[in-house]
Amino acid sequence: MSPNKPPEKILFVDDEAAVLDSFKRQLRGKFDIDTALGPAAAQQAIQNDGPYAVIVSDMKMPGMNGAQLLAWARGASPESVRMILTGFADMDSAVKAVNEGNVYRFLTKPCDAQTLIRALIDAIRQYRLEIAERQILEQTLQGAIKVLTDMLALVKPEAFGRASRISRHVRDIAAEMALEQPWQYETAAMLSQIGCLALPDDLLHKVYKGKPLSRMESEEFRGHPAMAVELLDNIPRLEPVSQAILYQEKQFDGYGPPEGGLAGHAIPLGGRILKVVLDFDSLSAGGLNKASGLAELKKRHGWYDPDMILALEVTLGMEANYNLRRVGVADLEENMILAQDVCAGSRVLLAQGQQLSRTLIVSLRNYHRAQRLAEPVEVLVPIR
User: Fold this and answer.
1) Please, where in the chain does CATH 3.40.50.2300 lie?
2) What CATH fold (topology level) applies to the domain 156-319?
3) Where 4-aspartylphosphate occurs, residue numbers (predicted)?
4) How confident is the model at residue 358 (pLDDT cuts 50, 70, 90)?
């Protein structure tokens, strides 16, 4: 543990105040201890005062026993290491606690101070390992997502432009609805077009400019979410993201891909959000302003979750205002939004609506050095 980092906290739970006081006396100066008198107080502490590195619970308590409490804690604080104190008569219950609550260790009463201290040291070590593993996994996940989005931006800039535009709407909707784990919805938006890597550029150009498609072209384009899921299946922790992407074309009434009986609120929430923002983006690409686009969405009865329509309407009214600026390629900055396509001849390098990242700016400047691009470039900059 870093000298500047506070020590990990441990929560002891028992229905007898005298027992909790004895733990405080035995462990004073060795660990950062909180106590909870009974399961209800423990639940409140875990929700309000956590995270706890270790949760140690008595087995026999009124209302909710230790096994039940730790099974609940497994969902509320999954990284906490859970231990239980039990008498020999409770052995069957202790085995159940290990199975249902994923209990790291159980200690038998009476438990001497040295045995308890060694168990707590081991539990804290286990907690640190789990935290380190999670951080490595998160960094790997973030790196994989960045590689995919950068690849989409360079290979299919119009597809990335659409993903960039809708991600802002999705972020705002997730905030408006106070959704948990908003990163999942934003990631689903950024990766929603990753299956388009396998589609021809002329088809994508027609789609993203709101032009009509032939029946064959429509069928080809409707297959891109399934292709995205195949690509993402090998990346851990992206299952909710994959499901949102898979159902991005599914109407609220159940019509549309993928085939199957899901409809209404059985459709993954991420898919319902993507459906409304993608269709709104298509209407905007076809030339409709915000008010006209929303009006058109509302006419399509059964297509969208009404809550998503309302959230989109609210967030559109809260969008930041932008200044239009014309700048040279050398003056482009991160987070500027392109107000025009950046083209090399007839080829789109970066699409209108795309938010500029450092990678994209470097790529654009390198291209500009080799083959001069038309300047100035029109960009949108938020008014602060």
Assistant:
1) 9-132
2) Hypothetical protein af1432 (1.10.3210)
3) 58
4) confident
